[in-house]
Design goal:
This protein is mainly beta. It has one helix at 2-26; strands spanning 45-53, 56-64, 91-95, 99-101, 104-106, 109-116, 122-127, 143-149, 152-167, 172-189.
């Protein structure tokens, strides 16, 4: 009887440990947000944005550069050239449900976000090659969507590049990209 009790208790303990590990593994892709004190605004940092719109889960992974007093538009980021819309690696946009941008329906999947900033309008690009370094590997032949948008001027300076998903309704949201005193908004629907 004692041996049975020992085996039973050991099995329960191992199962509890395994369940905790699985739970931790399932949520490992949702890191805790960095505390404001950790951001010294001295270098680009890896960031993630997660959002639920209706039953669609969206994940955006990017490297967020800092303004640091530099001229961004037409300076660090040239006008009328393809920009990785972050630093280092291409920004990835992953969604687990089919979605639409404008009148174009797109399949669930993982994509790269690029933009072509202009003085008056920007071109927002979704590219099927999500694993790219800067715009070095970029080719327009892999674009699945291009959309012309008009940037909004911000009153407050957004020191660090920021991607956000603003939910409009159960079926609609906006992908917002803000840096320095510019924001662009991309309408998403499901």
């Amino acid at each position: 009887m004692r041996l049975f009790s020992y085996i039973f208790i050991t099995a329960v303990a191992l199962n509890a440990c395994q369940s905790k590990k699985e739970t931790a593994d399932n949520h490992a892709h949702h890191p805790a947000p960095a505390t404001p004190e950790a951001d010294t605004l001295k270098k680009s940092l890896p960031k993630e944005t997660h959002a639920m719109v209706g039953n669609a889960h969206i994940t955006i992974k990017y490297t967020a550069p800092v303004t640091k007093g530099r001229v961004i538009w037409g300076g660090l980021v040239p006008y009328n050239e393809v920009w990785v819309t972050g630093a280092h690696r291409a920004t990835s946009f992953e969604i687990d449900k089919d979605f639409a941008i404008g009148n174009q329906t797109l399949p669930a999947g993982k994509y790269a976000i690029f933009t072509i900033p202009g003085e008056e309008t920007w071109t927002f690009i979704l590219n099927k090659n999500w694993d790219q370094h800067l715009a070095d590997d970029y080719t327009a032949a892999d674009d699945i969507l291009r959309l012309t948008v008009t940037p909004e001027r911000l009153e407050e300076n957004q020191e660090r590049l920021l991607y956000a998903i603003e939910t409009v309704s159960e079926k609609e949201a906006e992908l917002q990209i803000s840096w320095e005193k510019i924001r662009i908004s991309i309408p998403l629907s499901f």
